[in-house]
Design goal:
This protein is of the alpha/beta class. The chain has 2 domains: about 400 residues, Alpha-Beta Barrel (TIM Barrel), CATH 3.20.20; about 30 residues, no CATH class. The strands form 2 sheets. It has a 9-stranded mixed beta sheet. Strand 8 and strand 9 form a beta hairpin. The radius of gyration is 23 Å and the shape is globular. The N terminus is likely disordered. The protein binds iron/sulfur cluster. The site of iron/sulfur cluster has 11 residues, from loops. GO terms for molecular function: 4 iron, 4 sulfur cluster binding; L-lysine 2,3-aminomutase activity; metal ion binding. Belongs to the radical SAM superfamily. KamA family. It comes from Candidatus Moduliflexus flocculans. Its EC number is 5.4.3.2.
């Protein structure tokens, strides 16, 4: 017979397995999700709900030894359940020199860059992602991607704050309509982790633009999509849309799903990588109601493929969401064939299809991140034929000025000999194809 203590213990264990229902309330008349009129600045996760502290039982989310050691060292009062709560992670993100310098031996250059910073693209690192940073090596790839250096303050020729001309292809605030059949719907300017090479650095974390992300603007954008029947594909991005709470996200998805000509919805996010705790069973249960729903996940380096990230991606894949990766080619971070091979192989194992490799956009202060295009071609050449085509991303330049994505391929066509097409294979050997038919 079980003692009362054992029964209580068992019940506590059970509560670990249960998820609260979706926060979204539906209007009984219209069946429309109810939405308070608030700005996204308010609901970026900072003020939301209670942290649900569950004691005892087995943890719902993987907590690796590395993360556990880091938590005990820098957040000794924090429980494992709090650490695994994405809202706790957002509330405790590292944003200032004092906190960061307690965790990392900052170089003089990093220190100066952080001290000088003001305006958009603030320093912001979730405790989870901070646990992956090398405390003593400023050249570590993950650290370089999130800790500023003074190179950010040098504007080189050809750089601009909005190199893709997004502001000029925006029919209503927050919507970019560059291609006839699809739109980019920017729903927030908030990110839990700020990447130092961000294409939208001009607006991320900006109080001014935050005021532009509210339900009135969302409704304007949805109205534009509704009235434009050529739009069959909507990419929800930002900022990071997965920093919105479930109810806001569900409201957006519900509204878009009701538009008949919208065949496909995509979400662009880095949350599964920098905030894997965000991928809760409640979120995936909600997302899978809005299929066909795809997700583009921003990965930078193979060291990001931790057990936590694998679990988060597994949950999304189990919800039937096709996952693709987007990676920016970055000097000294991922610009080696060996590094990229490890990344794409790790992604395939994580059920994420390597989709895009982007040439770094010439945003202001990006010279220290940008490689020559020949480097990207070398990487594609080092992948194509050496691994499955599923693991080879499309290498593209997003054309400055708003020309859209232009694919770049190494030279595999060597010319013609008469009517024979001369082709080079992945080993550099030449083959002929009879390029004629009756
Ligand atoms: S997650 Fe995306 S939008 Fe956010 S800072 Fe990084 S690159 Fe920019």
């Amino acid at each position: 017979m079980k003692t009362p203590g054992a029964i209580a213990q068992q019940l506590r264990g059970l509560s670990e397995e249960l998820e609260p229902p979706s926060q979204c309330l539906f209007d009984p008349q219209s069946e429309e999700p109810l939405l308070r009129r608030t700005s996204t600045a308010e609901f970026s996760g900072l003020e939301l709900g209670q942290i649900r502290v569950i004691r005892g039982g087995k943890p719902r989310f993987i907590h690796s030894q590395r993360a556990a050691d880091f938590r005990k060292r820098y957040f000794p009062q924090t429980t494992q359940s709090e650490w695994n709560d994405w809202r706790w992670q957002i509330r405790h993100r590292i944003q200032d020199l004092k906190t960061l310098s307690a965790m990392l031996a900052l170089s003089p250059d990093e220190r100066e860059a952080i001290a000088r910073h003001h305006g958009t693209l603030p320093v912001s690192i979730t405790p989870y992602y901070a646990s992956l940073l090398d405390p003593s090596d400023p050249t570590q790839p993950l650290r370089r991607s999130v800790v500023p250096v003074t190179g950010e303050y040098l504007t080189s020729p050809g750089e601009s704050p909005d190199p893709l001309g997004e502001e000029h292809t925006s029919p209503v605030p927050g919507l970019v309509h560059r291609y006839p059949d699809r739109v980019l719907f920017l729903v927030t300017d908030f990110c839990s982790v700020c990447c130092r090479y961000c294409t939208r650095s001009r607006m991320i974390g900006d109080d001014e633009t935050a005021r532009g992300f509210n339900t009135r603007h969302w409704e304007q954008a949805i109205d534009y999509i509704q009235k434009t029947p050529t739009i069959r594909d909507v990419l929800i991005s930002g900022g990071d849309p997965l920093t919105l709470p479930d109810e806001k996200l569900e409201w957006l998805l519900w509204k878009l799903r009701r538009i008949e000509h919208v065949e496909m919805i995509r979400i662009g996010t880095k949350a599964p990588v920098v905030l894997p705790q965000r991928i809760t069973p409640a979120l995936t249960r909600m997302l899978k109601k809005y299929h066909p729903l795809w997700m583009s996940i921003h990965f930078t380096h193979p060291d990001e493929l931790t057990p936590e990230v694998q679990q988060a991606c597994g949950r999304l894949a189990d919800a039937g969401i096709p996952l693709g990766s987007q990676t920016v080619l970055l000097k000294g971070i991922n610009d080696q064939v060996e590094t990229m091979t490890r990344l794409v192989h790790g992604l395939v194992k994580t059920r994420v299809r390597p989709y895009y490799l982007y040439q770094c956009d010439p945003i202001s202060g990006s010279a220290h991140f940008r490689t020559p295009v020949s480097k990207g071609l070398e990487i594609i050449q080092g992948l194509r034929g050496h691994t499955t085509g599923y693991a080879v991303p499309n290498y593209v330049i997003d054309a400055p000025g708003g020309g859209g994505k232009i694919p770049l391929l190494p030279e595999y066509v060597a010319g013609y000999d008469g009517k024979d097409l001369l082709l080079k294979n992945y080993e550099g050997k030449t083959y002929r194809y009879p390029d004629y038919c009756e």
